[in-house]
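Teaching assistant here, posting this on the class forum so everyone can see the example we discussed in section. The complex has two components, and the goal was to see what a joint structure prediction looks like when all of them are supplied at once.
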Amino acid sequence: MLSMRPIGRVRSPYTTTLEVPKGLGAKHQVEGTLEIDPEFEPGLQDVEGFSHLYVIWSFDRSEGYELVGAPPTDSRPHGVFATRSPRRPNPIGLTVVEVLGREGRLVRVRGVDMLDGTPILDIKPYLTSVPSEHLRRGWLAEAEARDAAKPE
Amino acid sequence: MLSMRPIGRVRSPYTTTLEVPKGLGAKHQVEGTLEIDPEFEPGLQDVEGFSHLYVIWSFDRSEGYELVGAPPTDSRPHGVFATRSPRRPNPIGLTVVEVLGREGRLVRVRGVDMLDGTPILDIKPYLTSVPSEHLRRGWLAEAEARDAAKPE
């Protein structure tokens, strides 16, 4: 068994799962805030240089799991690992959000699909596969540019 | 605190972190296997319809964390949430892998950057932003096609 603890909470306009858009063509354009606990604030240094972040979080209002079930996007059943169902063996959620700005331990983002108060477990830079015209890679792009400019 | 348990293990050619390509321009083309525990095999139904999967795993050979540090890609320090450092408050790893095939509870994949024996916590379909010519969306594309073909 592994123990995880929240590093902060999501602030979202959604308070029940019924409010979160689901199913085919659902768009997540809602703004929210990643409110990181004060002790972890130093870990946010430079996240604002990325256009997008992965947020790894916990489905804290989901109970139990179902290995095969029909998601809202289909009437046919699928394995839970082929869906984004909240009823998973480990209730881990994953959302790609767009960074709007940071003020200290508060990261304003677009694209939340979590409920208000959702525990955040981790944040990582999103590096792959956003269409390049929309991608900013923060300090990594700067580091690459410095690397390329080095004399041989 | 939240308790998580492994749903399986990664089989990878890497046995030490020194072998895993890191830094600017590192390519992860190595093949490996997601070996899911027998009790969770039904949850894999239809994962083979997706071109790519997210694998959420645990840095089980990492100890402690560092909120600010210099990654192998840069000599300058950054917050841990702006890097993929293994030394994180919650030691969660995230890898996008390409699906090569599935035989029962074994999913063959390309793109592993985990060590052999790494505990897997979750698997999810990768739906966003792989260039569309490389993306297959499995049952979701079929469900959308059926939905579009419905009489009004």
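For the discussion questions: Chain B touches chain A through 57 residues (CB under 8 Å). The longest helix of chain B spans residues 138-149. Think about how each of these relates to the inputs above.
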